[in-house]
Amino acid sequence: MAVFTEVSEDEARALLRALNLGELRTLRGIQSGIENTNYFVTAEDMFGQREYVLTLFERLTFEQLPFYLHLMKHLAQHGIPVPDPAADRSGDILHTVCGKPAALVNKLEGQHELAPGPDHCAQVGAMLARMHLAGRDYQRRQPNLRGLAWWNETVPVVLPFVSPEQAMLLRGELAYQNHVAASAAYAALPRGPVHADLFRDNVMFEQGRLSGFFDFYFAGVDSWLFDLAVCLNDWAIDLATGAHDAPRARAFVEAYAAVRPLTPAERQLLPAMLRAGALRFWISRLWDFHLPREASLLKPHDPSHFERVLRERVRRPVNAAAVLA
Ligand SMILES: Nc1ncnc2c1ncn2[C@@H]1O[C@H](COP(=O)(O)OP(=O)(O)O)[C@@H](O)[C@H]1O
Ligand SMILES: N[C@@H](CCOP(=O)(O)O)C(=O)O
């Protein structure tokens, strides 16, 4: 369940009026998700009924949120199908509901594709590249808050909860990633705003066509290659084993590269970033699992999944030649 804060109809009504979006018709808590309180909201004005998603942020602060919300608005204005935060009469897109930071965005049509084929992957790959290019002139800066600095801080915190073999892998991989981050190839990677969590459950499809990307609340400025690697580790693997799925990976990367060709540094560091993407989610899942925050994370994700993905990536590196002609 993901309604950590109850929103009354009166509070939702007041927000809709402040945003000039008409009258409240329905307000329905969304049960999935693990970070925030989410509601589907239906409002009606003179043009008819429209559906929105109301999010109350349970973890992110008033200081951090403008980066994410303005990024979504920027991308929406550049034709990327992402939720567009609604502004009040003063132009503000970050609101306060029940004393918490909140946003209201348009509801994307469609459903998740949880068993994607190469065509779904190609659509996501092409849109990911378009999104990276559209973010180039976004002015706000915020690092990926789940990047290397956070891994260095958090690995020591989770080490007491893991086996000696897992501790060895975590320590070794962290050392490897610090080494990679100090390299000239890493410094040459093109960077910009990235989604950083574009898993299958953060993308919508309608009748087989991609209809949107959402859940930008792990976004930040990082290498575009890291974003691509996070995607490949979810869209192009066998979920049961973590094994690389070559046809889906090739479809994804070729479609991405047709919009934005990979640089030599990106081709060189693809295997390392695939390991980085797996390490990032192994650490966060261990942290969520062993150190759950109060009233949150009622449904922690399985950490061992990303341990398997990381071991696969170390044992069988996937290089650029395997995914690009
Ligand atoms: N803009 C949106 N359009 C359509 N559905 C959405 C939208 N935002 C969230 N949802 C729905 O709400 C669910 C939970 O949202 P999510 O962002 O994953 O929550 P959390 O941040 O708490 O993990 C999603 O799986 C999706 O079904
Ligand atoms: N995708 C991450 C967790 C983030 O959860 P979300 O519901 O906000 O997408 C993972 O799988 O560990």
UniProtKB/TrEMBL annotation:
<dbReference type="InterPro" id="IPR002575">
    <property type="entry name" value="Aminoglycoside_PTrfase"/>
</dbReference>
<comment type="similarity">
    <text>Belongs to the pseudomonas-type ThrB family.</text>
</comment>
<dbReference type="Pfam" id="PF01636">
    <property type="entry name" value="APH"/>
</dbReference>
<keyword id="KW-0808">Transferase</keyword>
<dbReference type="InterPro" id="IPR005280">
    <property type="entry name" value="Homoserine_kinase_II"/>
</dbReference>
<dbReference type="GO" id="GO:0009088">
    <property type="term" value="P:threonine biosynthetic process"/>
</dbReference>
<keyword id="KW-0791">Threonine biosynthesis</keyword>
<dbReference type="InterPro" id="IPR050249">
    <property type="entry name" value="Pseudomonas-type_ThrB"/>
</dbReference>
<keyword id="KW-0418">Kinase</keyword>
<dbReference type="InterPro" id="IPR011009">
    <property type="entry name" value="Kinase-like_dom_sf"/>
</dbReference>
<dbReference type="GO" id="GO:0004413">
    <property type="term" value="F:homoserine kinase activity"/>
</dbReference>
<dbReference type="GO" id="GO:0005524">
    <property type="term" value="F:ATP binding"/>
</dbReference>
<feature type="domain" description="Aminoglycoside phosphotransferase">
    <location>
        <begin position="26"/>
        <end position="262"/>
    </location>
</feature>
<keyword id="KW-0067">ATP-binding</keyword>
<keyword id="KW-0028">Amino-acid biosynthesis</keyword>
<keyword id="KW-0547">Nucleotide-binding</keyword>
<protein>
    <recommendedName>
        <fullName>Homoserine kinase</fullName>
        <ecNumber>2.7.1.39</ecNumber>
    </recommendedName>
</protein>
<comment type="pathway">
    <text>Amino-acid biosynthesis; L-threonine biosynthesis; L-threonine from L-aspartate: step 4/5.</text>
</comment>
